[in-house]
């Protein structure tokens, strides 16, 4: 993939068809007071998915030219990938986080959103996703991101970040964890450093 260029939403929307395609993806998260093994705080449940190509990414996809807005395209894609539980999500402009442009292998502008849910809403989406139209086709399954570092210094988020991600999904995840303060900054930076050493 070519180098990504950060854009404001206005700059991103000025890049239109037929030269540019737009894609929208979302990070869904919920406060999670549980502890792993009764000891390690989970902090938040953060949703990602295993894609058909074996890479990790976020729910969402390409905006159809018939979609009235980026958000309408995103909400349509979420329903296709997550099922009926996503119908009540209604991501809006206020949930927007960032935009990036890439020119290779095709010209795509990627828009990223984030929305906080209750843990109950989050679980309902997880449970309903197996009935979604794209389950077993475009989406192989949902995954929760481990927001901790185990005592071995590798397990948890560092190991998770060592996986293969689609496009800039890895960078989007790190940016969202930092911006939304879903993990203490020091621990997040440590996890990123450890993952980089493993590559």
Automatic annotation (TrEMBL):
Pfam families: Nudt16-like. GO terms for molecular function: 5'-(N(7)-methylguanosine 5'-triphospho)-[mRNA] hydrolase activity; chloride ion binding; cobalt ion binding; IDP phosphatase activity; magnesium ion binding; manganese ion binding; metalloexopeptidase activity; mRNA binding. Its cofactor is Co(2+). It catalyses: a 5'-end (N(7)-methyl 5'-triphosphoguanosine)-ribonucleoside in mRNA + H2O = N(7)-methyl-GDP + a 5'-end phospho-ribonucleoside in mRNA + 2 H(+); dIDP + H2O = dIMP + phosphate + H(+); IDP + H2O = IMP + phosphate + H(+). GO terms for biological process: mRNA catabolic process; NAD-cap decapping; nucleotide metabolic process; positive regulation of cell cycle process; sno(s)RNA catabolic process. GO terms for cellular component: cytoplasm; nucleolus; nucleoplasm. The keyword Nucleus applies. Its EC number is 3.6.1.64. The keyword Lipid biosynthesis does not apply. Signal peptide: none annotated. Residues 19-170 form the Nudix hydrolase domain. Belongs to the Nudix hydrolase family. NUDT16 subfamily. This is U8 snoRNA-decapping enzyme. The lineage of its organism: Eukaryota, Metazoa, Chordata, Craniata, Vertebrata. The gene is NUDT16.
